[in-house]
User: Which sequence fits this backbone?
């Protein structure tokens, strides 16, 4: 065995897999669902077409399901040593709680279920989500617990 072959076998890999937060891959999905729900609420308020109302309910429900997956992945990240960004996590959780109320408001029947209250809740939840993910698509800090900057 030549010297170049022995160093090739013992050298470190050129590319390393970055162990980032798992939930970072899932965070865009609830944001997209809730943004689409706000858009369909706006469309319903302008046209009073029932189709937009039904789309809103399904989009909010889908966003809540994806938010549950994000929460599960964020818990896994906490156990892996990621540090939570408390303000962003609180804003994200507040948007999810508002969306739970929003789906309950949307479950009522008629135009008044969406236009004053549902539209407002969709807008506030979207603003909170955009604030929560503004620095990046993560709810944790960049470095793990105990890691050096």
Assistant:
């Amino acid at each position: 065995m030549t010297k170049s072959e022995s160093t090739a076998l013992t050298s470190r890999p050129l590319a390393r897999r970055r162990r980032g937060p798992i939930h970072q891959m899932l965070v865009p999905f609830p944001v997209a669902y809730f943004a689409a729900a706000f858009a369909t609420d706006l469309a319903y308020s302008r046209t009073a077409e029932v189709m937009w109302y039904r789309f809103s309910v399904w989009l909010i429900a889908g966003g809540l399901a994806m938010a549950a997956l994000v929460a599960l992945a964020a818990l896994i990240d906490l156990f892996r040593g990621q540090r939570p960004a408390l303000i962003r996590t609180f804003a994200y959780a507040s948007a999810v709680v508002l969306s739970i109320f929003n789906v309950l408001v949307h479950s009522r029947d008629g135009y008044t279920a969406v236009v004053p209250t549902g539209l407002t809740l969709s807008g506030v939840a979207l603003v909170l989500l955009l604030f929560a993910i503004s620095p990046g698509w993560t709810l944790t800090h960049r470095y793990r617990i105990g890691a050096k900057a």
Notes: The longest helix spans residues 50-79.
